[in-house]
């Protein structure tokens, strides 16, 4: 154990050690049992600064294990926040006990190797470990100072945080799967307060990267500040039909909601508005959506999915036509399509199908300014609020709070708040009238251009 | 509980934690066992268990905090974690320690009465829990052919904590929570509509004696069926009557957060600097009460070892006080209010709500509804989002009706309720005598979730915006 930076504790575990913990449990499988074991180990640091001083700092190591047992088509799961041998063995017995009470389903099971070769992606950057902690504190201090000095109307910064992580993950199963990865990440975030007279506004900015040196602090400052002060004095707009102009971040949010309905579990349970619509034109031909965890440019990239299968490029919508859904091994078996290598999971939870690295293909309509110039009556969206309660992924109904700037005759106009926009996810795909050429890789792992969605109801004053 | 954590070891660990000049050091031990059973798509899909045990060590020096946590409960693991916490506080600090180091005071155990648990959930067979979910499914489906999907969930948590600090505090608590939830989907001409009923209390398996599973399933199914007849929610500004119970989430989100002393300090609150001012209609008394037995947000002690208690925040419309954790209370030279909470031993505590509610008034719900010519009755409010600095909020209406000529009439499809918390407080025109707590909630703040309760009586707001789809 090294005491670099003087604040590390515990004994670290690498991929090989994790894999051997997983294998030791898998080796205990009875003849009628399938066992899958996921283990992870992470070293985390997070810190906050406030008014030029370090406010708090956390350093810790996290271990976790998740054990899935299948016996006679019944599934049981148990997890723990420790890799101590007694805890690990207790989880195996718990998972076995749980499996006895589940009900059988012939499609339930762990992933079977499917011959797809994983792509080699290096997700590890040594700099996360070697950068002195003082430099990490300085990143947060620079961010706070940058935000405060960017505009006289910025009156405070509620939270400025920096965090990083070095993590290893391993998975072994009775199907012969052995997978392991290691990855680093670093992120910053800031919550900004602005005042002008008796008007108050808040805004948020963040960035993520594989190492601290790749964080773009200037961009975080610019976006957080402009999106906050530009909302000062926002008023409730008149109710009207409008076009929404979405920058790459907001496009990613909206298209992410849609991609969330294209998952195998929703489809087999009839809980997606797009069930039975493969091959149909569900969107404007301007839209192409792919889930591609093999793209090393994406922060969502990974060589393996949550069940240890190789990730692959999964087309979702091509030129407006629905191509299919993302599947894990269960929904893949049940639907007959096979897994698309799209299982997502934390070590402590069961896998389920999901999108790793959504990519919305760029169009030919230029940048955000070009898109604004082409709109007669619209809203440049800054924030969407209430997405959890306002989007029904079963029916597709969409009604969320919005803040932003009105657009009139191609020009930005007054800021607005205390209003909602409503449409349906289905209509928004068909009503996308322009796709920008400004493709941006976002810290969420999604890559997206700016877009325009027409014919949306803006509800404000009667 | 960790019997290895003797007073001698605790004192040693705290002394190490104070070595870089902290004023206060704290050991937070936690052992959480959870189990859940899920029924979906006609099948008991999976049972899951989890175990989480570890220690978080915190050092406070003025406004600065160093923190480290570990799942390694050995004496060496704790000492090493204390050193990491002490190093964290020293990082980036100018100059070396001057003056004497703080010392550890002899521990004085706090007498704590944990919440009463009649039937420990872990002693109930898994087959019984499976059977309860089955009953829920069959009952919901039996309501109508139109009920096409049912999902139900049972979950239990036992959380044992011990808080020890260098000022002599030593307190244990044992918290049990049990939850049962039913979701149903009805199919009709207007597509798929959903209905939910969830109950959760700080108690054991006796939750299912208190509530009849079939009754919960019936409510969930009927809510979905009602919405099949619903018309689109209108768009625009209306008089709104909020029914008892679930409307409490609005006051939790849009007012409660602004009364948390950490947000007040950073001026991220519309209520900063307003103690003693009339901030609400005189009909409004807003309370946060961690000592409310059996409610979802109940705690005998908070996660800093201080007793849960009743705190009046707004009384007859006047702002009385904020909520406090240890750090903010120390800085203000006052006692904490039992609101220092954290998601787990891996997280730092901060000011959090417990059970937050608006006290009952004198009007009957009937007379409140009768006073509205043209408005909206929100029977159940769903999740929402709020900007704590401005108080602007958006909440989903999961069950709502038109009010026409003083009568509740047509059901409405889902829509959003938009407004501003501080403004709503001044626009409350009537408060009912029918107080209820709402369904169990999880409050998120800075990435940490903790269980909270909230409640309201029927109340009338003079103007709120409904974001519906009907033009």
What would you note in describing this structure?
The complex is a heterodimer of chains A (462) and B (471). Chain A folds into two domains: 217 residues, 2-Layer Sandwich (PmbA/TldD fold), CATH 3.30.2290; 229 residues, no CATH class. Helix content of chain A is 23%, strand content 37%. Chain A has eleven helices and 20 strands. In chain A, helix 4 runs parallel beside helix 5. The radius of gyration of chain A is 24 Å and the shape is globular. Chain B is α+β, with helices and mostly antiparallel strands and 471 residues long. Chain B is built from ten helices and 23 strands. In chain B, strand 10 and strand 11 form a beta hairpin. Chain B is globular. Classes of the chains: A alpha+beta (462), B alpha+beta (471).
Helix content of chain B: 10-25%
End-to-end separation of chain A in angstroms reads 66 Å
The dominant shape of chain A is globular
- Low-confidence sequence ranges of chain A: 1-10
How much of the sequence lies in strands of chain B comes to 35-45%
Number of domains of chain B: 3
Features:
heterodimer; A: 462 residues; alpha+beta; PmbA/TldD fold; 2 domains; six-stranded antiparallel beta sheet; five-stranded mixed barrel; 11 helices; 23% helix; 37% strand; globular; B: 471 residues; seven-stranded mixed beta sheet; 10 helices; 40% strand
């Amino acid at each position: 154990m090294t005491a670099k930076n003087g604040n590390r504790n515990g004994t670290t575990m690498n991929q090989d050690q994790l894999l051997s913990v997983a294998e030791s449990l898998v080796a205990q499988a009875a003849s009628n049992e399938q066992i899958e074991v996921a283990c992870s180990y992470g070293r985390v640091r997070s810190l906050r600064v406030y008014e030029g001083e370090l406010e708090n700092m956390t350093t810790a190591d996290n271990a976790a294990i998740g054990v899935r047992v299948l016996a006679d088509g019944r599934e049981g799961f148990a997890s723990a926040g420790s890799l101590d041998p007694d805890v690990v063995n207790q989880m195996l017995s718990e998972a076995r006990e749980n499996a006895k009470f589940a009900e059988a389903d012939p499609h339930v099971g762990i992933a079977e190797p499917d011959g797809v070769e994983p792509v080699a992606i290096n997700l590890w950057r040594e700099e996360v470990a070697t950068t002195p902690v003082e430099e990490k504190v300085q990143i947060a201090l620079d961010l706070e100072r940058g935000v405060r000095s960017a505009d006289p109307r910025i009156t405070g910064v509620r939270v400025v945080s920096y965090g990083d992580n070095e993590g290893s993950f391993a998975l072994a199963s009775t199907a012969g799967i052995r997978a392991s990865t290691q990855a680093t990440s670093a992120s910053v975030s800031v919550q900004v307060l602005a005042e002008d007279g008796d008007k108050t506004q808040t805004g948020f900015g963040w960035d993520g990267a594989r190492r601290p040196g790749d964080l773009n602090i200037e961009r975080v400052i610019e976006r957080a500040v402009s999106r906050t002060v530009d909302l000062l004095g926002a008023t409730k707009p008149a109710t009207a039909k409008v076009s929404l102009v979405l920058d790459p971040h907001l496009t990613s949010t909206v298209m992410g909601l849609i991609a969330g309905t294209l998952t195998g579990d929703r489809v087999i349970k009839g809980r997606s508005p797009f069930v039975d619509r493969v091959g149909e034109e569900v969107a404007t031909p301007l839209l192409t959506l792919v889930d591609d965890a093999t793209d090393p440019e994406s922060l969502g990239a990974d060589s393996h999915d949550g069940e240890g299968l190789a990730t692959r490029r999964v087309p979702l919508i091509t030129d407006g036509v629905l191509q299919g859904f993302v599947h894990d091994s269960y929904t893949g078996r049940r639907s007959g399509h096979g897994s698309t290598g799209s299982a997502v999971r934390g070590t402590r939870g069961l896998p389920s199908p999901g999108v790793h690295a959504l990519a919305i293909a760029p169009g030919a309509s230029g940048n955000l300014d070009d898109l604004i110039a082409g709109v007669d009556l619209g809203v440049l969206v800054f924030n969407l609020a209430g997405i959890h309660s306002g989007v029904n992924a079963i029916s597709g109904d969409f009604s969320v709070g919005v803040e932003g700037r009105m657009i009139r005759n191609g020009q930005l106009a007054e800021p607005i708040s205390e209003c909602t926009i409503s449409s349906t996810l289905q209509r928004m795909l068909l009503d996308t009238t322009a796709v920008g050429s400004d493709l941006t890789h976002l810290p969420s792992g999604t890559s997206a251009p700016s877009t325009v969605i027409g014919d949306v109801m803006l509800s404000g004053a009667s | 509980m960790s019997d290895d954590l003797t007073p001698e070891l605790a004192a040693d660990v705290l002394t190490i934690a104070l070595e870089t000049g902290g004023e206060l050091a704290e050991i937070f031990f936690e052992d959480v066992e959870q189990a859940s059973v899920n029924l979906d798509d006609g099948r008991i899909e999976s049972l899951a268990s989890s175990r989480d045990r570890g220690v978080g060590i915190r050092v406070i020096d003025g406004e600065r905090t160093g923190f480290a946590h570990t799942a390694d409960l050995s004496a060496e693991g704790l000492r090493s974690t204390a050193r990491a916490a002490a190093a964290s506080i020293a990082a980036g600090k100018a100059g070396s320690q001057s003056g004497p180091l703080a010392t550890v005071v002899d521990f004085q155990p706090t007498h704590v009465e944990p919440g009463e648990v009649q039937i420990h959930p872990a002693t109930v067979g898994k087959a019984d829990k499976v059977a309860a979910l089955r009953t829920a499914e069959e009952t919901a489906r039996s309501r109508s052919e139109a009920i096409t999907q049912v999902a139900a969930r049972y979950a239990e948590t036992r959380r044992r904590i011990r808080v020890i600090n260098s000022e002599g505090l030593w307190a244990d608590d044992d918290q049990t929570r049990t939850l049962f939830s039913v979701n149903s989907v009805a199919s009709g001409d207007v597509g798929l509509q959903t209905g939910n009923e969830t109950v959760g209390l700080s108690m054991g398996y006796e939750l299912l004696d208190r509530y009849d599973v079939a009754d919960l399933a019936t409510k969930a199914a009927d809510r979905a069926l009602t919405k099949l007849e619903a018309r689109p929610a209108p768009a625009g500004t209306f008089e709104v009557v909020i029914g008892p119970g679930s409307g409490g989430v609005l006051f939790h989100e849009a007012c409660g957060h602004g009364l948390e002393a950490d947000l007040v300090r950073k001026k991220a609150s519309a209520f900063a600097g307003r103690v003693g001012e009339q901030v609400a209609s005189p009909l409004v008394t807003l309370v946060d009460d961690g000592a409310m037995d059996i409610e979802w947000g109940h705690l005998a002690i908070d996660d800093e070892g201080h007793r849960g208690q009743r705190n009046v925040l707004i009384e007859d419309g006047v702002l009385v006080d904020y909520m406090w954790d240890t750090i903010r209370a120390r800085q203000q030279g006052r006692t904490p209010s039992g609101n220092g909470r954290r998601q787990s031993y891996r997280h730092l505590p901060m000011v959090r709500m417990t059970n937050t509610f608006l006290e009952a008034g004198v009007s009957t719900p009937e007379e409140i509804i009768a006073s509205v010519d043209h408005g909206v009755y929100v029977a159940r409010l769903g999740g929402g989002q709020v900007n704590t600095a401005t108080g602007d909020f958006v909440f989903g209406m999961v069950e709502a009706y038109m009010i026409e000529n003083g009568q509740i009439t047509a059901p409405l499809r889902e829509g959003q309720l938009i407004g501003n918390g501080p403004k709503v407080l001044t626009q409350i025109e009537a408060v009912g005598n029918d107080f209820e707590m709402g369904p169990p909630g999880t409050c998120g703040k800075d990435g940490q979730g903790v269980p909270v309760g909230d409640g309201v009586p029927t109340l009338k707001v003079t103007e709120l915006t409904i974001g519906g789809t009907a033009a």
